[in-house]
## 1
Amino acid sequence: MRRIQKRALAVALLVAAVLAMTALYAARWAVHGGEWAGFPSNGDAFIAGRIRAGTVRDRDGEVLYAVRDGEGRYAQDESVRRASLHIIGDRAGFIGSGALFHYAGTILGYDPVNGLYSADGTGGVLTLSVDAGAQRAAWEALDGRNGAVAVINYVTGEVVCSVSSPAFDPEDPPETAPDDTSGIYMNRPLSAVYTPGSVFKLVTLAAAIENIEDVFDRDFHCSGSMEVGGGRVTCTHAHGDMKLEDALALSCNCTFGQLALELGGETLQKYADQYGLTQRQSVDGLHTAVGRFDAGAEGSLNLAWSGAGQYHDLVNPMAMARFVAAIANSGDAPDLTMVKKTALLGLSGEHIMNAATADKIAQIMDYAVRRTYGPENFPGLALRAKSGTAEVGTDKPNAWFVGFIQDPEHPYAFAVCVENAGFGFSQAAPVANAVLQAAVR
Ligand SMILES: [Zn+2]
């Protein structure tokens, strides 16, 4: 009798295990079926590595890629084609982050009931969150210079613009994959890291607001340079006496170096981590490159410079845009997506910054635009911004401009980095203006 009971129990367990595995498979199939079906080696999905059917559109319906009669074609406008190369992908498949691979299931029209079958054979439609007009404007404003442009909607997390330069015309690709010293296949907004220079002062500013009680009452003084640990922190010229707001608007290295020394490396590290700048960020499961903060010893010249975005600091442009989005959005960083949202339900994100701190920084960035950058250079945009001129050894500096527009209709945060271009305000700010003007049009 006992033996029969044992056997019955064993059978029951076996049945339960089979049911559990079936349920697990069904769940995985529902979630990942599109990915499995859209795998490049699936002959029903791809022919010689090229997607068999489907259309990719921008947020307003402009075609970015469409397969008709077995032939895939990119956007008609050449600037849009080049600007969108890295987010769509190339025919040879060297750009793995492209939508043609990452969202193949949706483009093919996959659904869990019908699989890849579509009655007329045209496949599905993927509507990206990017704006083709903003893509074009970014590409044209970069004007042949290398760099990255990222614009995100700070409420929904939709990526409105993501441009990487250099690029090529996907309708006329290079003959063979070069050894890639040009970085032409690299999707910079997602995969690059750059020395941030003064845009990192926003992190030091947040740490100072939260850790130095009287920081807004203090008088700072800049004589043009400051001796630290046998070396010097320098400014372009003597900024004289100033309050904290002025120190950000004037981007005074001496003041921010001093704040970094006072805050200490551990505190700055904590803020860089908390704001996601040293972590990989996800865009629909694609990950950004990981940034770096490396404070240097307490009281050292390296620590002073690290608080001003130099030394070993590195940031990824998309992660930087997400950080600025949190400033714009009272501390909430939205989850990033490349796919257009059809409803505002189910928005998700992460609260990474104290709301009062975020609002205060937003005010100071507004002051920086009025005092230093000039609202007249950004007509019609309620811009809050910070520039950066990041020294990168012997080359010309990387030019940065980051910020957001205070506009409920167009809640856009951005990060622009133009490599080896010169001053942030003169080189990167016009790119940001061109993109934002196109995005709000
Ligand atoms: Zn100064």
Note: The longest strand covers residues 383-390.
## 2
Amino acid sequence: MTVDTIVTQGALAQNCYIISAEDLCIIIDPGAEPFNITSRIAGKKVMAILLTHRHSDHIGALPFLQKETLAPVYEMSNLKEQNYSIGPFHFQVIFTKGHTEDSLTYYFEKEKMMFTGDFLFHGDVGRCDLEGGSWWKMQESIHKIKCYPDDIKVYPGHEEATTLGEEKKHNPYFKD
Ligand SMILES: [Zn+2]
């Protein structure tokens, strides 16, 4: 299984991720630049499009890709906190509200990776002062994610990847 990162240009530089297993793939947060995404997935069947939350910088290319691929869209409104399997892709959905009411994290246990959207960044957490944001819920989410193993690689919605262990040690919002 491989992870490909597409960073969209512009002020909001957002990370779109493509997870591939041979000729199958899933897309996480198609923020913008649909042609950039379609060229990277050329020849692969898109099994699903996963959304971490519906902020415009994370779903800009969604309408185009839905039409183009006919892949089902997974998001808070049709997911529960449980395990899912889509073809060769197995992941757990963890609700991580706080940045928004619909913020969630996709955790691939076997591959030791999680996709946190705008919940968790390297050394930071998402802002909670936008519509639907809640600092109280953010703290609950941080508390929840602390229970997961240190060696998980964290792929956030913006900027560089990190590990959960690194965040437990150095992220100021993870201090008790
Ligand atoms: Zn956001």
Note: Residues 53, 55, 99, 118 surround zinc ion (CB under 6 Å).
